[in-house]
Amino acid sequence: MSVLVDADTRVVVQGITGHQGSGHTRQMKLFGTKVVAGVTPGKAGTQVEGVPVFDSVREAVDRTGANASCIFVPAPFAKDALLEAVDAGIRLVVIVTEHIPFHDMLIMYHYAKERGARIVGPNCPGVASPGKAKVGIIPNVVFRPGRVGVISRSGTLTYEIVNGIRENGLGQSTCIGLGGDPVVGTSFVDALPWFENDADTDILVLVGEIGGTAEEDAAEYIRHHFTKPVVAYIAGRSAPAGKRMGHAGAIISRGKGTAQSKQAALEAAGARVGRFPFEIPDLVSEVLRERGRR
Amino acid sequence: MVKLAEWRGKEIFRKYGVPLPPGRVARSPAEAEQWVRDGSVPLPCVIKAQVLAGGRGKGGAVRFANTPEEVRAAAQAILALEFKGERVREVLLEGKLAIGRELYVAITLDRSARVPILLTSSQGGVEIEIVEDSAIIRQPIHPFPGLAAYEKRRASQSLGLTGAASRALSPLLDALWKAFNAEDAELIEINPLAVVGEGLVALDAKVIIEDDAAFRHPEYSEIRDDRTPLEEIAREKEIAFVQLDGNIGVIANGAGLTMATLDVLTEFGGHPGVFLDLGGTDDPAKVSEAFLLMAQARPRAVFLNIFGGVTRCDTVATGLVQAMGQIPPAERFPLVARIRGNNEVEGIEILRKAGITALSSLKESAQSVVAAAQGPTAAGGRA
Predict the structure, then answer these.
(1) Using a CB-CB distance cutoff of 8 angstroms, which residues of chain A are in contact with residue B86?
(2) Is A237 within 8 Å of B263 when comparing Cβ atoms?
(3) How far apart are the first and last CA of chain A?
(4) Closest residue of B to A155, CA-based?
(5) Range B229-382 classified under CATH 3.40.630.10
(6) Could you give the count of Cα atoms lying within 13 Å of B162 in the half-sphere of its Cβ?
(7) pTM, to two decimals
(8) Superfamily of domain B22-95 in the CATH hierarchy
(9) Tens of pLDDT, residues B177-210
(10) Which domain holds residue A286?
(11) CA–CA distance, B52 with B148 (Å, rounded to integer)
């Protein structure tokens, strides 16, 4: 078992002929992922990294049995790419593209939801389950198979922490990067039940950051429904209020959204919250030792 | 995020049919006087500074006038103001109305529910942050059907509107909903929305446009009121660059790692002054440009913290070494570098050849850069 992806995941890369699309197709294949198709309108018949390119997702699905998509197309075209993937029957879409307007993302999220498809992202590093499959861009070197689950709103900070877990001699079951945009296809609360039910996961690492209330929502879920131990880190304790990361309407969060609020909520829910990113791998090892699982 | 001044917000309101007081924008006292003399703005009128900061009423940035002479004097006084660090370039003149109740109406995004949300309160005219939660009605709007008639009736009821005022609310909410979507707004707020006679009038306008939708709104590209000049250059070069109050420059990649780096520096007694997020790049020239931009901010010391993914360590190292050669001796600063991840070994070697030692522990590098910012000696190397 794993979360979202497994050995049967067959990936179509939308925007495969671009610089990022082709480079990460190579990395996904090196990870062991079955990348079966690419899509770039007008480039059908060519190959990228040995992967056949089609004009449409529909053709890619019909010809290769692709069941997951990884989107690299530029932001103005991302909404169309998502709609095309969902309409072709794809049920997992990882959107790496950044700077997608949240108004577009609202349409994309609800469209996918109504058709039973799951979006991870946008502006995210994707999903990886070592030894099985990776859909996205997380560097291969940070992984090794293991039993630590990871959910994060960050990219590089996740790599840093996941790498630290590996250096401590542990490995990961599945790692999901949710992305840092205001509207995300998958939130902490969406992903937590998957890890609760995943037989391969013993402990969960949650990496959050300031803004919004996703971590407070997660804490609420953890308190009532999550039985596995949780280690958490929240980035942005020292970030000044009002400089970029601007909360879209302080009125919705009303006192929530600060790192302090998120840390307190998670601690109250029983999570071990690290003050520094480099403490997280050690906290994971410590909690597992206490529970006699190492 | 592009915050629009009141008058720009009201231009959007006018476009979509939100009722406004009769008004005009003036950029000089003479122009202000002319708008009342030619009858464009009726007397008595209110003269308001067009700045983004709140609290204008208490800060002397809003005045009333009964004669053309008073209008001129008020405009002159306000246009000479620097309000909370912002120079006043425009004033908005509006005819004074006989105001009844003051209400609050806004549409924004509910991130957790992933839907737009209509907020209404019968306690308008005060900062909404101080209004009790229970006095604010939250109506989620599903993006597919859009704002429904029953949702508008509910809003009207929550605001205590009846008769003609209640009927006036429906097209007003439709206009806000349309503007929220068509203008790619993050927030559209009317506070206060005044009951005037049998009708409703938007006395203020707060509109924030989403940055990421800039590609379909070239009309907003000229509005960049709240950025520093260096932040503006960075924006043009597509580098995320934020100026803070401290003296340590931070260059990292990815928002999360950048924030975590600031946190660690702060914990060890450092004061981050500028942070720069390289994001994902594989172009050494872009890294080099970022470094030169950092030099212009005159930091006491710089901490480079990179975890290589899309951005490879050797790319960053190459860009850094290129930039070093271009920084004049007088502007050089102590540099502490930490690079991990993709092509780490190659990156460290490139830095070593240029005389820069890369550390691998975040804790040690943070302590080292904090010390460098406090003292005259460089740690790690010199750029």
Answers:
(1) none
(2) yes
(3) 20
(4) B254
(5) no
(6) 1
(7) 0.92
(8) ATP-grasp fold, A domain (3.30.1490.20)
(9) 999 999 999 999 999 999 999 999 999 999 999 8
(10) 138-290
(11) 32
